[in-house]
Amino acid sequence: MSQTAPAAAVALSHVSKIFGRFAALRDVSAAFPPGKLYAILGDNGAGKTTLLRAMVGLAPPTRGKVTVLGTEDLRAATAQIGYMAHPTLLYEEMSAIENLRYFAALYGIRQDHPCERAIRAVGLDPALARRVGQYSQGMRQRLSLARALVHDPRILFLDEPFSNVDVVSAREMVHVLAQMRDLGKTIFIVTHQAVLLEGVADEFVSMAAGQISARTRDLPSGLERGAPPARATL
Amino acid sequence: MSLGEITRVSLAKDLRLEWRSKDAINSMLFFALLVVVIFSFSFDPTAEESRHIAGGLIWVAFLFAAVVALNQTWARELRNQVLDAYRVSPAPANALFISKTVGNFIFVAVLETLMAPLFMVFYNLRSIGPVYELVLVAILATWALVANGTFFAAMSIRTRSREVMLPLILFPISIPALLAMVSATTAILTGEGSARFWVVLLVVYDVVFTTVCLLLFETVLHAE
Q1: What domains does chain A contain, in order, with CATH numbers?
Q2: Above 0.85 for ipTM, yes or no?
C-alpha cells in the first residue's frame, strides 16, 4: 500500500514582494505540511511579517504564487485562516465579548459560546465588561489571539503574539497553541522570542534579507536558552 | 452569513462605536453650527433674500460637515488596523460599504434634523412650496453625499494626507448632485418653479453612483 505525503497547508512558489525599490521577499519557494507549528525567525526587516501577510492574502506577491489549502484563490480560503497581526485588530471602544461577537459574525457564527470559549482559552474572562481600550497591552495581545481563534480555523498565522506579554502568560499561550497543533491545526508564528517555542515548534524557519535562509528542527544556534546575547561586530 | 446579516451586524457595530465615542456627530454639529452662525453674521438678509440663498448655504454647510463624518468612519477602521481583520474574513466587501454608507446617512440625517430648526431661526425661513418635497430632497441629497463620500473616503484612507484628499476627490464629483440639491431646495423654499427636474436628477445620480461604488468597492477594499 503506497502512502502519499499530505498536501502542503501552505506552498510558496518563487514569491517576491517588492515595495517601490525595496524587495521585502526575494524569490521565496517553500512548502509547509499541515499539522505542524512553524516558528518564523529573523532580524527586523528580514521579511517575516511580509511573508505572513503574503500567506493570508493581505500582501499579494509581486511575482510568484501562494497556495493555501490547495487553492491559489486566497479569498476562498479565508474561512479556514486565522490571522493575528502585530496591531491588535480590535475596537478599543468595545468589550472583549462585543469584539468577538462582531468578528465571529463575519464568519457566520451567531452563538456566544464560541466567543466565550476563545476568550477563556487565552485566559481572559468573557464577562469582563471593561472596554478593550482599558486593557493592559498583554490582555490586548491575548484577546487578539482569541479573535484569531474564534472561528476555529485550520491554519493560524500569528505575528509577534508574545510581544508585551509577561513570561507566564506567554508560556500559557504557547501551551494553548501546542494543544491546537496537536489537534491537527497548522500554526505559523513570527516571533523574536524563539526560546518560548523551544521543544514546542516542529520547525524553525529562519529568514534573512527577504529569503528563507534555513529550516531546522532545533532552535538555531545562538538562540537557545542561556545563550549569550549576540554581540555586534564592528 | 448573508450580505444583509453582515451589513446589519456591521451597522450595529458602527452605531455602537459612534454612540460611545460621539466622534463624528460632535465634530459635525460644531462645524455646521459654526457655519450657520458665521454666515448669519456675515449677511443680514431679508426673509425673501434668505429663501433665495438658503439652499446653497444649507447644503454647503452639510457637505463640509459630512466630510468630517466620512473621514471618521474609516479612521476608526484604521486604528489598530481593524480593517485587516475584515479583509481576511469571508465577509462580502459590499456589506461593509453598505453598512458604512447607511451609518453615515444616519449621522448626517441626525445633523440635518438638529440643524434645520436653527437655519429657520437664523435666516427667518419659511417654505412656500410643499414641505414633504423638502424632506424627499433631503433624503436623496444626503444619500448622494454619503454614498460617494464613503466610497472616496475608503479610497483615500491609504494616502498620507487623507483629510485633504477626500474633499479634493469628492467635491468635483459631487457638483451635479450639489447643483440639483441646491436648485431643488431653492425652488421649494421660494415656490418659484418646479423641483421635479432636480429631484429626478438626484435619483439618477444616486442610482448611478451607488451602483458604480458597489461594483468597485471590493477592489478598493483589497487594494494595497
Answers
A1: 10-89+153-216 (3.40.50.300)
A2: yes
